[in-house]
């Protein structure tokens, strides 16, 4: 029992929050083993180390492997470089980031991917040790004929020390440095202590002093308290584990520990002061404060022969054996089985009391009080058997459901039975609770007839027994809970929730739920929590809401629930234990769409929440105990392990179109790159499955992509250009490396993706658009000319008709009138009338001839538009006091007659309006012959009213007519006016539509901007 108490002390002493806790049993640690062939490890491991970049390195008989937490990758050197041999032994990761590799052909160093081989070095060098100043020293264990004890490793050479410097312990197979600055070397001759610049001291080891050379010091270590340890790979008197005390080396012994039994192959003092011992035949041991702990092949160690032990940057412990690699870390949830001192490998229930005692129910009942675990007996000295349920009431009494009996522990005494309790064969106590009046209620099930009973107990006497099968059917009452309104709640195994109050049963359908109830709990607000396979239902004042995956929980299948009274509720589910704060739950209750922040403790953190009959129980110091089918578990919310190391993030592999590409800065990928895969890793080894990543490809992604645990990124059909791939990661506890790592690369363009090709394509497109425009303009001009020709033919026909009809009639009328006048001798009045008739007919003849001339050809004769406008200006001057100036720009070109006539009519109307209405002193008319024909008529008069410009003058059609004529020719018409600047009429018509010969030579296009204006006034 004393040994059992020592074991329990390891469990229940207050732990520290980081690294592998020395107070936790080795069998309670999280252990993972990679055996040869697992995760890519294809060689027999020899040693393990870690470099400053975070990678774990493993030496094997088949080369060097690199581990990122998920897979082992065989290391390959750069082209033209290689290690001296693939048969490797010791490894050491130095402070400067170098990795030193011991081979059967000497020493090599790997730094930044480059290999340097030390010339003239011994075979199988090592082991290595780094002194306080960063100097690296190595042993000479594999060089059988080498007289040196150890060598200092320089940048490019080795400086060895041996017999010439006073060393008697040559070919040092083990070494270490102590806190006082001494170097220690162990060999077959003994142990030497030395500071550079002094003569070494030789200290004899009893088992080596006989000089037989049958064994040698194989490992050494120095702890933070200054103690120096040594080990021989041989057990027996004077051998095994040695400790230096008062200047002498002796076998280490302590209560329960005999160092002579160990065949020591490796030693490691961890950062918490514990000493780890690897043996050649019994696996792994650890000594903490004089207490011994063991973990062997029977517990899952990859092999009983330990070759080396290593502690990484996150304080995880690595063990190398010939058959694999083992890793140890802390669990958040500790298990307590027979291996750790429990009385059984089966757990039914757990309870606690105010004194801090923990009661463990299994096939018997045990009390853990402080450091002592004892089996409890009843007042008749009998062991309690088949303990199914434990419950502590408000008076700190322990109620015990043992088989078909109910016991009470009060005043440190267990009463044999409650008076009147219906004990009987085939029954068992399924559940116990206490209501608000302090009555005890027990659910009793009979396995024979499946009848259920509800027992009410007051003052340790049964006062009521209710058969419930007639009401709820033949189903087990899985759970009981006090009802704030009085009575109790009953959770049934098939048909949901019932209320028992004032002697009456009532079925309660909370939020439509009517299925199996796993457990019940009343919280501090008086609300009822219903634990179901579909989630956790909170039922309060007639309202029911379900806490499920939709609310942020990891799964729905509930098992139990516990309120720690310190601001958190603990939800036990089949997928783990979940902690949620009361403030989060309050926000969720107010807004069901709110997500709770769930801290999940799953199997990766030791949780096995397959609870049996019992409820979780809490000790005064805050530890929460629970019982599963196989073990008892405890979680300490005040001392949860926390990984505070941000994970180094590395890019491991770049695959382009199925081919591996060497990672380099400013990487240039092949043209026509279609598929890119980037493999990355975060070097966190505590729970690598919990590492979360996010990445972004600058130049392609606008936002970060959260990918969870995925360690690959894929991109297809990237456009040519520069890119930067950036990836960050967070470890298992959410500590993040936001800087991460990045890789810059460029996807070069193919010839058809280059800038010059795009510019050429754009130019070609513009040329095509230009010629399409010219073609369309020419078609428009051709259509317009056809319309002009049709109008001209029509006017010619009309002119012919006028000549043959109207003009002949008018001329005949004039002749008749003239003849009548010559022969008429009547009165003066008749003569005067005839004179008038003659005058009218003469005028009609003149006008008809003018109309005939206008219809037969353009009103502008001889293609002289400028001359015609001069005549219009002369008529204007004769009727108004205005100065008119007419000018041209460019070479005057021949126009189509109809177009010329339309331009003339527009100009005529504009000039006439200026003379008649503007009151201007000056009038300017400009004709510009360029690619487009421009007509501008401008005066300095009083302008035109805004309303007239916008809507025209009632009964007048001058402005509308000018606009229609311009639009008819495919041109534009604009007029602007103000009282200060006068009126400007501007008409622009495409040359293709107005000129007889619209084609232009390149010379005309180039010269045109420099042509001057010719004033024709």
From TrEMBL:
Top-level taxon: Bacteria
GO cellular component, as recorded: membrane
Coiled coil stretches, renumbered: none
CDD domains for this protein: HATPase_UhpB-NarQ-NarX-like
Residue intervals of the Histidine kinase/HSP90-like ATPase domain: 898-993
Signal peptide: 1-19
Alphabetized GO MF terms: phosphorelay sensor kinase activity; protein dimerization activity
Protein keywords: Kinase, Membrane, Signal, Transferase, Transmembrane, Transmembrane helix, Two-component regulatory system
Gene3D superfamilies: 1.20.5.1930, Histidine kinase-like ATPase, C-terminal domain, Immunoglobulins, YVTN repeat-like/Quinoprotein amine dehydrogenase
Transmembrane parts of this sequence: 755-775
Protein name stated in the entry: Signal transduction histidine kinase/ligand-binding sensor domain-containing protein
């Amino acid at each position: 029992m004393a040994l059992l108490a020592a074991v329990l002390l390891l469990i229940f002493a207050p732990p520290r929050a980081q690294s592998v806790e020395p107070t936790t049993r080795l069998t309670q640690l999280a252990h993972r083993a990679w055996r040869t062939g697992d995760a890519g490890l294809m060689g027999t491991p020899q040693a393990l180390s870690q470099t400053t970049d975070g990678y774990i390195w493993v030496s094997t008989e088949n080369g060097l492997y690199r581990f990122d937490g998920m897979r082992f990758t065989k290391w390959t050197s750069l082209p033209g470089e290689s290690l001296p041999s693939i048969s490797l032994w010791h490894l050491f990761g130095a402070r400067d980031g170098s990795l030193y590799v011991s081979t059967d052909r000497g020493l090599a160093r790997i730094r930044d991917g480059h290999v340097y081989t030390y010339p003239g070095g011994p075979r199988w060098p090592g082991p290595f040790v780094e002194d306080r100043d960063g100097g690296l020293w190595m042993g000479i264990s594999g060089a059988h004929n080498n007289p040196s004890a150890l060598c200092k490793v320089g940048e490019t050479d080795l400086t060895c020390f041996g017999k010439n410097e006073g060393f008697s312990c040559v070919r040092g197979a083990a070494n270490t440095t102590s806190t006082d600055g001494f170097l220690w070397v162990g060999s077959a001759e003994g142990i030497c202590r030395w500071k550079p610049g002094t003569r070494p001291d030789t200290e004899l080891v009893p088992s080596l002093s006989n000089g037989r050379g049958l064994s040698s010091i194989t490992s050494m270590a120095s702890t933070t308290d200054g103690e120096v340890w040594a080990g021989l790979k041989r057990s027996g008197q004077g051998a095994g584990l040695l400790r230096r005390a008062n200047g002498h080396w002796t076998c280490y012994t302590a209560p329960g520990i005999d160092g002579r039994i160990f065949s020591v192959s490796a030693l490691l003092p961890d950062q918490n002061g514990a000493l780890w011992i690897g043996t050649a035949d019994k696996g792994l041991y650890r000594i903490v404060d004089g207490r011994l702990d063991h973990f062997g092949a029977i517990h899952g160690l990859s092999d009983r022969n330990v070759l080396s032990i290593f502690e990484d940057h996150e304080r995880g412990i690595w063990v190398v054996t010939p058959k694999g690699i083992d890793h140890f870390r802390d669990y958040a949830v500790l298990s307590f089985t027979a291996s750790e001192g429990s009385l059984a490998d089966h757990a039914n229930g757990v309870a606690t009391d105010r004194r801090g005692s923990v009661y463990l129910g299994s096939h018997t009942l045990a009390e853990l009080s402080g450091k002592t675990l004892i089996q409890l007996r009843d007042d008749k000295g009998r062991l309690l058997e088949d303990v199914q349920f434990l419950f502590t009431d408000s008076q700190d009494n322990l109620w015990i459901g043992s088989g078909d009996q109910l016991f009470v522990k009060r005043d440190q005494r267990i009463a044999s039975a409650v008076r009147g309790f219906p004990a009987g064969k085939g029954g068992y106590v399924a559940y116990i609770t206490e209501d608000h009046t302090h009555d005890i209620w027990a659910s009793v099930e009979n396995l024979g007839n499946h009848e259920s009973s509800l027992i009410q107990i007051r003052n340790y006497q049964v006062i009521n027994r209710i058969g419930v099968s007639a009401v709820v059917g033949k189903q087990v009452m899985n759970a009981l809970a006090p009802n704030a309104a009085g009575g109790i709640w009953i959770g049934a195994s098939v048909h949901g929730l019932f209320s028992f109050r004032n002697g009456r049963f009532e079925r309660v359908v909370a939020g439509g739920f009517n299925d199996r109830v796993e457990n019940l709990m009343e919280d501090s607000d008086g609300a009822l929590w219903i634990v179901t396979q579909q989630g956790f239902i909170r039922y309060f004042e007639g309202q029911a809401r379900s806490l499920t995956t939709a609310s942020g929980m990891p799964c729905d299948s509930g098992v139990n629930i516990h309120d720690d009274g310190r601001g958190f509720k603990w939800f036990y589910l089949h997928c783990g234990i979940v902690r949620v704060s009361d403030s989060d739950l309050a926000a969720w209750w107010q807004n069901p769409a709110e997500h709770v922040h769930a801290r999940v403790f799953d199997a990766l953190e030791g949780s096995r929440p397959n609870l049996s009959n019992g409820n979780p129980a809490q000790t005064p110091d805050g530890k929460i105990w629970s019982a599963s089918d196989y073990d008892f578990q405890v979680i300490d919310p005040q001392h949860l392990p926390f990984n505070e190391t941000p994970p180094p993030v590395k890019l491991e592999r770049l695959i382009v179109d199925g081919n591996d590409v060497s990672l380099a800065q400013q990487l240039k990928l092949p043209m026509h790159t279609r598929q890119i895969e980037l493999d990355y890793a975060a070097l966190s080894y505590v729970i690598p499955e919990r590492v979360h990543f996010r990445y972004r490809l600058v130049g392609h992604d606008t936002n970060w992509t959260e990918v969870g645990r995925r360690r690959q990124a894929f991109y297809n059909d990237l456009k040519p250009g520069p890119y930067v791939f950036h990836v960050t990661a967070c470890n298992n506890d959410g500590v993040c490396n936001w800087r991460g790592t990045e890789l810059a690369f460029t996807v070069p363009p193919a010839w058809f993706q280059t800038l010059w090709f795009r510019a050429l394509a754009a130019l070609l497109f513009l040329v095509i658009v230009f010629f399409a425009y010219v073609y369309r303009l020419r078609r428009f001009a051709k259509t317009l000319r056809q319309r002009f020709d049709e109008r001209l033919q029509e006017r010619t026909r009309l002119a012919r008709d006028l000549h043959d009809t109207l003009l002949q009639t008018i001329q005949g009328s004039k002749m008749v009138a003239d003849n009548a006048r010559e022969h008429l001798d009547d009165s003066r009045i008749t003569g005067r009338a005839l004179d008038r008739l003659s005058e009218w007919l003469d005028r009609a003849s003149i006008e008809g001839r003018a109309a005939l001339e206008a219809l037969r050809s353009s009103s502008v004769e001889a293609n002289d538009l400028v001359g015609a406008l001069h005549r219009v200006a002369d008529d204007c001057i004769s009727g108004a006091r205005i100065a008119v100036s007419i000018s041209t720009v460019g070479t005057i070109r021949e126009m189509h007659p109809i177009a010329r006539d339309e331009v003339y009519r527009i100009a005529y109307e504009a000039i006439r309006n200026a003379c008649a209405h503007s009151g201007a002193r000056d009038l300017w008319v400009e004709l510009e012959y360029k690619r487009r024909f421009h007509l501008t008529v401008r005066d300095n008069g009083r302008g035109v009213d805004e309303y007239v410009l916008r809507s025209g003058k009632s009964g007048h059609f001058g402005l509308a007519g000018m606009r229609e004529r311009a639009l008819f020719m495919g041109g534009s018409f604009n007029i602007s006016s103000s009282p200060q600047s006068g009126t400007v009429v501007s008409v622009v018509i495409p040359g293709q539509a107005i000129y007889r010969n619209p084609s232009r030579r390149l010379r005309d296009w180039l010269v045109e901007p420099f042509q001057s204006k010719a004033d024709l006034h």
